[in-house]
Amino acid sequence: MRKIQVKIPSCPKSSYCIAVGAGSLPKILAQIRKSLPGKELFLITDANVVKAKHLKNLLGKEKLPLFIITPAGEKSKNIKTVIKIIEEMEKKALGRDCVVIALGGGTVGDIAGFVAAIYKRGVPVIQIPTTTVSQADSSVGGKTGVDSSVSKNAFGSFKNPAAVFIDVSTLKTLDKEQFNTGLVESIKHALIADEEYLKYLQKNLKVILARKAKPLEYIAVKNCRIKASVVEADPYEKNKRRVLNYGHTIGHAVESASNYKILHGQAVAIGIIAANIIEQKLGFGGKERLAGLKKLFGKLDISLKIPKTITKRQILDIISRDKKAVKKWPRFVLLEKTGKVLCKKGQFAHKTERKIVEETINILIKQKF
Ligand SMILES: NC(=O)c1ccc[n+]([C@@H]2O[C@H](COP(=O)([O-])OP(=O)(O)OC[C@H]3O[C@@H](n4cnc5c(N)ncnc54)[C@H](O)[C@@H]3O)[C@@H](O)[C@H]2O)c1
Ligand SMILES: [Zn+2]
User: Fold this and answer.
1) What atom of ligand 1 comes closest to residue 141's alpha carbon?
2) Which one of 159, 160, 180, 185 is the catalytic residue?
3) CATH classification of 2-233, choosing from 2.60.40.2150, 3.90.230.10, 3.40.50.1970, 3.30.720.210?
4) How confident is the model over 303-336, as pLDDT tens digits?
5) Which of the residues 14, 207, 208, 209 has an alpha carbon 20 to 30 A from that of 183?
6) 112-115: long-range contacts at Cβ-Cβ below 8 A with a sequence spacing of 24 or more?
7) Catalytic residue among 74, 177, 195, 237
8) Which residues of the chain form CATH 1.20.1090.10?
9) Domain 240-366 -> CATH class
10) How far is the centre of ligand 1, averaged over its atoms, from the C-alpha of 23 (Å)?
11) In this structure, which residue's CA is closest to atom 4 in ligand 1?
12) Taking the complete model, does pTM exceed 0.85, yes or no?
């Protein structure tokens, strides 16, 4: 098992360990019990994770109080589910000495993290992510929350996990589209922080897609190291953490304009292409990188087409309401070169001219890249 320590200098008590290992699921409970003796455990998972037998694999013959989110997925990521879970915990007479365990993808992790942040003013949460998105991204960094009927993650809190356990074998049961689109966050990490890692992903895509343990462990460790180094520097998203938003400004807009019909990873892939076009227009080069990315997304079967129903105006309207917008205009995270985010006067977000962004959206819509 490989371990990565996430240090939070402003709050050493919030530091935590990420353990990565293939086939580790059956041993995790014993490790949790050993490090947190006497704590009552409460498990949150979802119907698909149960169906895929990961719950059985984690528990073995043990029984734990648990809540199974049904239906699985974003539809249940709302405050009603949070209320149901909290009331279930109260009925089980769980006190402030309990520990929440999240077994599942980013939806389960975000809900369980938020429940743990607010239950009796906060109890620890342990993340056991089971998707490419959650193993690369959402289980690390402490952002938790649920959606309102108006927007995503409207209710939320920062809640660092007490520990993260990643068993890459759980990815074997993930649906192909979920698996592939989730890898976009790994590509994003490589782009913002590590050129060699990008080359690794390009060269080893076949074994990654075959879901072989070794490459999956390798990318899990790489992703966690990159994400950890960013969140250590900026645990509460004041500045540097914005680099994790690479490809997300236009990506989120396309995702939202499609009414969440296209998957997050696909939208971010489109957003990454957009960022690359902007970088070229600003004179940072990257023609070869763009060609390489097109090829990589192609091999992942990720379509870079913006659905026909989405207009330039719609995208512009959504980005002007971006939560990081200043005077109704977003700031873009851009690359100076592969592995290096453009940073001017200590700011990682670039005030890109409207004309350049409009031209970029035209190029995307017409697929002329
Ligand atoms: N907190 C953060 O920093 C952060 C970062 C990125 C994304 N997110 C959030 O994460 C969510 C998306 O996460 P996700 O992509 O993991 O989606 P998800 O949790 O909804 O999982 C996708 C689907 O796969 C199923 N599933 C999960 N693990 C499985 C397995 N091992 N085998 C078979 N099926 C499995 C789920 O039941 C679901 O149907 C979004 O709500 C997003 O906002 C949060
Ligand atoms: Zn993302």
Assistant:
1) 3
2) 185
3) 3.40.50.1970
4) 999 999 999 999 999 999 887 788 899 999 999 9
5) 14
6) 112/44, 112/85, 112/144, 113/142, 113/143, 113/144, 113/145, 113/157, 113/159, 113/161, 114/82, 114/144, 114/145, 114/146, 114/155, 114/156, 114/157, 114/159, 115/44, 115/82, 115/85, 115/86, 115/89
7) 237
8) 240-366
9) mainly alpha
10) 20
11) 138
12) yes
